[in-house]
Amino acid sequence: MSRLTAMDIEKQDFKRKVRGFDPEDVQMYLHSVAEEVERLNLENGELREEVGRLKHAAQEIRGREQALQQTLVTAQSMTGEMKEKAKAEAELVVRRARLNSERMLQQAQDQLARLEAEISRCKLERDLFERRLRGTIEEHTALLDQRQQNEDEVANLHVLLPRRANSEAG
């Protein structure tokens, strides 16, 4: 059966019989049915258009959802890559810091060894200087003692010589 339109209903003609329906009632009824069918057809058309718009909107939403899902997957992937990259960079920084600290520690130990060697050398020089100084002091003390002894001897000679000279003269 094909679709009925309001015009089909209004143009519908019935056979007349002797004891049939009142033609005016039938025409009024057909007219009201035709109006209702027209209203329903219009509403149906509007609903079809709305369904079409909603289907289109749903497709757009699905497309957006798909794009969002892809964006989310991409973001998660990028986040993972960024975390890995940051972790690798952090490990590199830590490695460099350790190498630098080991190098600095080695330099400090080398400098300490040089300073200790310099201190030892200075102590040896000091000890040698002290020994030489003691030797020089002892030499000078011995010379002073010798000089004092020589002066005492000369003084004793002076005391003895004039007496001898006086005793020989007398």
Question: Outline of this structure?
Answer:
With 170 residues, this protein is an all-alpha fold. The protein has helices spanning 6-11, 23-169.
The level of helicity is over 70%
Structural class: mainly alpha
Q: Count all strands and give the number.
A: 0
SSE ordering = HH
Average pLDDT for all residues: 88
- Portion in beta strands: under 5%
Give the biggest beta sheet.
none
Spans of at least 5 consecutive residues with low confidence:
none
Multimeric organization:
single chain
**Alpha carbon gyration radius:** 66 Å
Q: Which term fits the overall shape?
A: rod-shaped
SS element count, helices: 2
User: How many angstroms does the end-to-end distance come to?
Assistant: 194 Å
Describe the protein's architecture and organization.
The chain is mainly alpha-helical and 170 residues long. The protein has two helices and no strands. It has helices at 6-11, 23-169.
What keywords describe this structure?
mainly alpha; rod-shaped; 170 residues
Topology:
Elements: H1 6-11, H2 23-169
